[in-house]
Amino acid sequence: MNLDQLRYIVLLAEELHFARAASRLGLQQPRLSQQVRKLEDELGVLLFERTTREVHITSAGKGFVAEARRVLHHAERAKRIARQTGRGEVGQLSLGFVGSASHELLPRLLRRFRQGYPGVKLQLREMASSQQIGELLAGRLDIGILHGPDGGVGHPELAAQEISRDRLVAALSRRHPQAYRDPLPIASLAEDAFVLFPRRLGPSLHDQIMHLTRSAGYEPQVTQEAVHMHTIIGLVAADIGVSIVPGAMASLRRSDVVFRPLTPQSHSIALHLAWRRGETSPVVRNFRNLNAPRT
């Protein structure tokens, strides 16, 4: 018994006429008759009663056809899912991202991906760059969006591609005495308390911030650390200190925090997509291809 035979039986049950059923199937009538007879012999029951003028389906035939339709439906569904999975149109994508990507970059990337692949389930996790690297290596993330000159990867099992560039800006409470300055000299923050994230969570970005302040002649007085960018901005709003953050955070447009470009102007900072080398998932490939640089 095979799927072709099931299709023959179902079509014959619809037509109850060998010639018409054979025509729909693109077969010669003797071929169809032979296949029906072969299946009946295998089952040991008659599925159809034939006379020289008419074809009638038997009770056994009706029961068989009902099940055959279900089998054919599931076979078509399995074929469709296999093809969609192979093309990366269904499945799941676990995506990590740093907080500074969540306001403009991430929504833009996700909209584009959802438009092209609405059948893929997304699992989104906000986490620091170094945490993403660990999760990628452990296989718990498929793709990361993180900071660093090379994606912050520096690991032979990971690869990265740059997808965005930004500049660092100062974040100050609107009540800060220098909140009006635009641009804001980096040196003018030398006496301020700072709110920053621990270096271990994002060494590349942390080092770039330290390089800015040290170039201005001082070591920042970090009085409070926080893991997420949103928390850092909240602490700045509470007058806990000032901070230096990626410019994308300015899209928050909070009434109690101002974001000021720095002088001298900082070097641009990069955001990268990172993934495991040799990754064969079509879903990962599609996400990467959607966000590949235009040539």
TrEMBL record:
InterPro entries found in the cross-reference section: LysR_HTH_N, LysR_subst-bd, WH-like_DNA-bd_sf, WH_DNA-bd_sf
Residues of the HTH lysR-type domain: 1-58
Keyword Transcription recorded: yes
Keyword field contains Transcription regulation: yes
Signal peptide from the UniProt entry: none
Entry keywords, A to Z: DNA-binding, Transcription, Transcription regulation
Name of a matching Pfam family: LysR_substrate
PANTHER family: HCA OPERON TRANSCRIPTIONAL ACTIVATOR HCAR, TRANSCRIPTIONAL DUAL REGULATOR HCAR-RELATED
Family in the record: Belongs to the LysR transcriptional regulatory family.
Protein name: LysR family transcriptional regulator
Organism: Streptomyces millisiae
